[in-house]
Here is the input.
Amino acid sequence: MVQSTDLSQGRRAAATAPVAAVETFTGNRGLQLEERLIFEYAHADRSGVDLPEPPKVKDRLGGLRRRGAIGLPGLAEPQVVQHYTRLSQKNYAIDSGLYPLGSCTMKHNPRLNERMARLPGFGDVHPLQPQSTVQGAIELIGALAGWLTTLTGMPAVAMSPAAGAHGEMCGMMAIAAALAASGEGHRKTVLVPESAHGTNPATAAALGFSVKPIAATADGRVDVAALKAALGSDVAAIMLTNPNTCGLFERDIREVADAVRAAGAYFYCDGANYNAIVGRVRPGDLGIDCMHINLHKTFSTPHGGGGPGSGPVVLSARLAPYAPRPWVVRDDAGWRLAEEDGAAGDDQALGRLKAFHGQMGMFVRALAYMLSHGADGLRQVAEDAVLNANYVMARLKAELTPAFDGPCMHECLFDDDFLKDTGISTLDFAKAMIDEGYHPMTMYFPLVVHGAMLIEPTETQSKHALDEFCDTMLHLARKAKSGTAAEAFKAAPLLAPRRRLDETLAARKPILRWRPTNQGPGDGPLKQAAE
Amino acid sequence: MRYLPLTDADRREMLATIGVRSIDDLFRDVPTSVRLPGPIAGLSSHMGEMEVERRLGRMAARNLAASDAPFFVGAGAYKHHVPASVDHLIQRGEFLTSYTPYQPEITQGTLQYLFEFQTQVTMLTGMEVANASMYDGSTGASEAVLMANRVTRRNKAVLSGGLHPHYRAVIETTARWQGFRVAGAPVDADGIEDLAALVDKEVSCVVVQNPSVFGHVRDLAPLAQACHAAGALLVVVVTEVVSLGLLTPPGDMGADIVVCEGQSLGVGLNFGGPYVGLFATREKLMRQMPGRLVGETVDADGKRGFVLTLSTREQHIRREKATSNICTNAGLCALAFTIHLTLLGERGFTRLAELNHATAVRAAERLARVPGVKVLNDSFFNEFTVMLPKPAAPVVEALAERRILAGVPVSRLLPHAPLCADLLLVAVTETVSDDDIEALAAGLEEVL
Here is the structure.
């Protein structure tokens, strides 16, 4: 069912020279514009902001007035706008098209959410204003907390973690606190399946736990027998992602939860993939103790080039007393932030994780998203996400090799078996996708699958977009297997703003900042690297 | 639903291609006992844009926005004017809806602005290298202590009594659960503490804020010398980054790690987040830094380009041996920061700092003339501490009823420090007018 990509309505153009061979005077390629660093066309006398003359006063800087210039570049507003506009055009984004980065959930970011976050009553209020002047803002945190606990079927939620990894830290600290409180502080082992996100073992290790990996079974799930065998009196917790990073639901999760609890340990669920089950399954019904929720994944707050995120953590009744401060309270007087320990017996909180009250701007966006979808729409979100991933898997398995049999959840996983003996790697395949106009899928993760390709289309892609993507992937796979294309794959991408970048050079001779001695584009870094 | 492109016909066709009869067949790995038969009870159904705007608009309207009142609230978050082009540019979809630049060939936009951001941060702080941002200043401060512990192989941090109490609390939480010791100096409202006396051979770092949370500006060079003599690092925290337009940068005073809250530039107040942490250090400590780093390199054609680098420090490579568990940072806030700073440039940024200081000096002089009010600071940048003749919290409430947001009562940050109950932190930025200062002074005269 390969569709024609000719949308010219039958008109024919005369043949011209191949695109890649065209050289231009500027280095620009049509709308693709080369752009210098701000430091390279600045002038100290320029500014893009007009400010009034400061009133004359006798300064009170304690003799610490700065001597010498900072060195900041000066540009007028039009230059600044052009600079960042040109930079933006070098980025692939969800707004540009399908962004199948598995585990990252690159779904459409509604602009209504941006508008709501910029309402002065949310965007222009200070975290330390008198609480009487921010009742609606505290109410919003409370409302979002209500949605999160209801959707997950968990009794409590900690709102302050700034991102998923920060949420993991919060949840694992709560577990450490609960263990210490019950005299079980000697439990120092955390079980982590081999397929886990890198943040899981990093978090556990940071908190002084020793990490014990648990193998996966041949069907891509945690080995329950191995897990049970490892559940000794030294085990503090298990950190399990569900659906897991292979895109599969852990069928035996109830059994795992029962075993963990019976062994006196806690169950940390990594909620990075909660978008696959939101509205259809309540994690609380699975027997978990806590789970972070990446608002920037499941609830579509924008990824912003790598943050800001937000990672609220839902908690079971036995962990709820150890939530970090502050939390939101509603009483007769109205909404209130419980910021500091007060009454006796109220001192089990694990402490403060972050200045102020959490990622408010992300809370507003997430709540706008939830209200837009409603409980019914969120259920549809999970269904369409799962349907899209299974559709892509069904179509691609004609040429690619799925890592596991059976249906997947929100993302489908392939290994590199179909590239065997072609001389082409997963990386080469991904780079060829770039020339075809796609952001590559997640590569080489999870680690349990060789040359892994993890594809997450999300629910916000149309069938048409999925078909175009699948046609492209099938074409590339056939080309790879043709036996004549290895060099072409190795050379890709040819048409992106940059070809493959020398990461070894970057790491061996790190240049992490511009210096006045740097030359213009091209010769500067080479010269520096040779120093 | 407006965000879901699949039609029912699409869904039927796709199920047929997959070879299953219904969507439930795709959820067959989920135990039947936990599958919900319909939408979760107790939550509303889907809404159109108008209805969502109405709902959230009602909540927003119950808050007093900073721009709608004479505004003097600071203590770690500051109201500054953000040029219109900043918000316009960060909302370009290519920035807003991309992710961590894992594929450098098609994310040079993000990588280049982060490289420029890192450079600007080194210039402001007087340091040699900076990372691509942290969640915020407070978590950055906690990461700085962890880094100092790694570098010195010691595990005791000395915290200044002028450090923002929330920052101190975040470091203490980290200390408690990640296993290092904290020696906290007594609250230093007067700016006279001598931290050098607390530095011994067990100390990995001293964490000091400049200007302090009470506003005092200190020469940290002697403290840096004391730290270095004992083999400890000096960590300098700056919660008001605009101050670096006018003050000697921490790097020039001997800081080893500098952490700033960058919220003042580009980001806005946002009721406390998201903000952006700046993190800078010496080149020799580069490989012990947390967070993402962007470096310059060349592509296969020899053209300059940028990549994420030194990632062997990070969790996705090193797992349990990583320097930090951090994955996401504050990319979009870093973009807002760097655009605002680029717009300002050397000239605009230093003038902005001058304007903040001069306005604050005028405010301090006016408030000092209010009967019963005493300004505690000799030195300050754009925030200072005043002592009132009675507890500050009810005074702030009374002024809020008059629609004046007078500042942060120290008791909000330190509820268990009775000696601080009468202290009020007053922040004065370029957004404060002469009329605002007069309104605050008159308001205080009325309620005191």
Notes: Chain A has 15 helices and 13 strands. The radius of gyration of chain A is 26 Å. Confidence is low (pLDDT under 50) at residues 519-531 of chain A. Chain A touches chain B through 213 residues (CB under 8 Å).
